[in-house]
Design goal:
The structure is a single chain. The chain has six helices and twelve strands. Strand 1 and strand 2 form a beta hairpin. The longest helix is centred in the first third of the chain and has 16 residues. The protein is globular. Strands 3, 4, 5, 6, 7, 8, 9, 10, 11 and 12 form a ten-stranded antiparallel β-sheet that branches. The protein has a two-stranded antiparallel sheet with strand order 1-2. The protein has 244 residues and is an alpha+beta fold.
Length: 244
């Protein structure tokens, strides 16, 4: 066996897998977005040697708005390449020069109020989404995105007192900007370019009435808290065992 060739092939495979994720403001995020994506969508991450894609399976309805944190981040060569991989025609007309000290910026949005998310997913109007999560233990939810947008839009977002995401028309999610306690602007994602996203997973546990329910939402590389499990069937089996 030619170990040098085998080692070289392994190195190429690692490079291909590695290009499917990037670090954004100290957080690891997925790239190679093909399908429309937004915070709050539920589906399964499909990882291959040459490609990586989030397959959307459920679009929950969020009647209660979810609080969002927005942060401006400087483009790096890596994040700019990730952006161009999604927008090959440079839709946002971003001019990036690595040698210049001043860099263009993009934004990251992260869902903050995960308690409200858990509550919304267990409402009657999300019964199908909940059934999917229960039957698909690798189901995940998009909890953060990185996206490029016009400078004027970033300034409006930064000037808002609070930002929420919720369901708009035709199950499309939109951002609501709040000032003086009132919504004054709604932003959909059609004028932006999403090039990276972060995922979280669900944990199942027992409530006060001894029923299995969604108990937590955890980061991708984290573990469920004590007495909670990624697998709903395992959670049920464990709870039944302790009742014996």
């Amino acid at each position: 066996m030619n170990y040098r060739i085998v080692g070289y092939i392994f190195f190429l495979i690692c490079c291909c897998v590695g290009c499917q994720s990037i670090k954004v403001d100290k957080s690891k995020m997925h790239t190679a977005v093909k399908n429309p994506i937004a915070p709050g969508l539920i589906g399964v991450q499909k990882n291959g040697i040459y490609s990586s894609e989030f397959q959307v399976s459920a679009i929950p309805e969020y009647k209660r708005r979810i609080r969002v944190n927005a942060t401006r981040v400087d483009f790096s060569q890596t994040t700019f390449n990730a952006y161009l991989n999604v927008s090959k025609d440079n839709k946002q007309q971003i001019k990036y020069v690595d040698s210049l000290e001043s860099k263009p910026r993009f934004m990251t949005f992260e869902l903050l109020d995960r308690v409200t998310i858990l509550g919304e997913l267990q409402k009657e109007y999300n019964i199908e989404a909940l059934a999917y999560i229960k039957n698909q233990k690798v189901a995940s939810i998009v909890t953060s995105i990185s996206l490029a947008m016009p400078e004027s839009l970033m300034q409006e977002i930064e000037q808002a007192e609070a930002i929420f995401i919720g369901s708009g028309a035709y199950k499309q999610y939109e951002l609501s900007l709040i000032k003086d306690g009132r919504k004054y602007k709604a932003i959909d994602f059609s004028n932006t370019t999403i090039f990276a996203y972060g995922l979280s997973f669900f944990c199942w546990g027992e409530n006060d009435r001894k029923q299995i329910m969604l108990a937590d939402i955890i980061e991708e590389k984290s573990s469920c808290p004590k007495n909670a499990y990624r697998d709903a069937e395992k959670a049920t089996a464990k709870m039944n065992y302790f009742k014996l």
